[in-house]
Specification:
The protein is mostly helical. Helices cover 54% and strands 2% of the residues. The chain is built from 15 helices and two strands. β1 and β2 form a beta hairpin. The radius of gyration is 19 Å and the shape is globular.
Length: 314
């Protein structure tokens, strides 16, 4: 596959086309990931990363537009990347990767960005754009009959991140920044621990055991200059991604240009008004004073977080 940047018209055509990635694209991308050949034009990808480190607009409308434009730039890095961003990510509602990425970025900007103004924090938006980067490829590789085609996403998220980050010049992202981003992308255990203790009735000690091992491993590998911020990064990477699966999240539709809610009432509720349990609205407080936040409130969830992050939950 010829790895050259696309113009934006061609990029939008792909983003608004089929949701299933063609077999030949998936086969080529799989080969390139295995061989370590970059699937993006590094110059255009550098522009994408640099664009995410500029000051965030204050107006919500401008924030949504800026993050949409960032996703267009990412998708335009190559034909292969355009198809990744166009591909369905295999969640209970139809959602393409670039749409989910927008929801994560918009959630981060609207809820968390004001608290992340340390110069080191600029790595968070590139990380947020890449933490699910292998999800569409995972779905494309899976058996179409599998009811959870994204079940192996974690390994592909890391493969994709390594592929695009490793060749990136150090003046765009330093070696330490790349390491921190890769470590954050490896985190899979926070949500699992919350589900196990909060919804499946697993005893607290058992629910947090694997998470404690994983989080401590990531902490140990974190570069020294980032260790004082790393737990906050772990938390925000989970919360912004979880928030993208709520009615508060928004993305811009590439076909219509409309700004849409990521979760509709029909996604969240059954006809009788009960939760479908297919979104994550239920895990966050919807008290009037918390509506602009993403605040965990259920006692079992708080117990998990107190064990995993004792300096942030008390």
């Amino acid at each position: 596959m010829d790895i050259r940047p696309l113009d934006y018209e061609q990029t939008v055509d792909i983003l608004t086309g089929p949701r299933e990635i063609p077999f030949d694209v998936t086969a080529t991308v799989e080969t390139m990931l295995t061989e370590g050949t970059p699937i993006v034009d590094i110059g255009r990808f550098s522009e994408f990363v640099a664009g995410l480190t500029v000051e965030v607009p204050q107006n919500t409308v401008d924030v949504v537009e800026a993050n949409y434009q960032s996703m267009l730039t990412l998708a335009s890095c190559s034909l292969a990347m355009a198809w990744q961003q166009a591909g369905d990510i295999g969640i209970p509602r139809p959602r393409r990767l670039h749409e989910h990425n927008q929801s994560v970025l918009n959630t981060f900007d609207s809820v968390f960005a004001a608290d992340f103004t340390d110069p080191r924090d600029t790595l968070l938006k590139p990380m947020s754009s890449l933490q699910d980067g292998g999800k569409a490829h995972c779905v494309a590789l899976a058996d179409p009959a599998d009811h959870r085609r994204n079940r192996n996403q974690a390994v592909h998220n890391s493969r994709m991140a390594n592929n695009v980050l490793d060749p990136l010049p150090s003046d765009v992202l330093s070696a330490d920044e790349k390491t921190v981003i890769k470590l954050l992308i490896q985190q899979t255990s926070i949500g699992a621990a919350l589900r196990q203790h909060g919804e499946k009735g697993v005893p607290l000690d058992d629910a947090v055991a694997e998470a404690e091992v994983e989080l401590n491993r990531l902490r140990d590998q974190c570069p020294p200059d980032y260790r004082d911020r790393f737990d906050e990064y772990l938390l925000v990477s989970y919360l912004a991604d979880a928030g993208a699966h709520t009615q508060r999240a928004r993305y811009k539709d590439a076909a219509s240009g409309e700004v849409l809610p990521d979760v509709t009432p029909e996604d969240r509720f059954n006809p009788d008004g009960s939760e479908t349990n297919m979104t994550l609205d239920r895990i966050f407080s919807e008290a009037p004073e918390d509506i602009t936040t993403l605040k965990l409130f259920q006692p079992k969830h708080l117990a998990v977080m107190q064990r995993l992050f004792p300096n942030h939950y008390s």
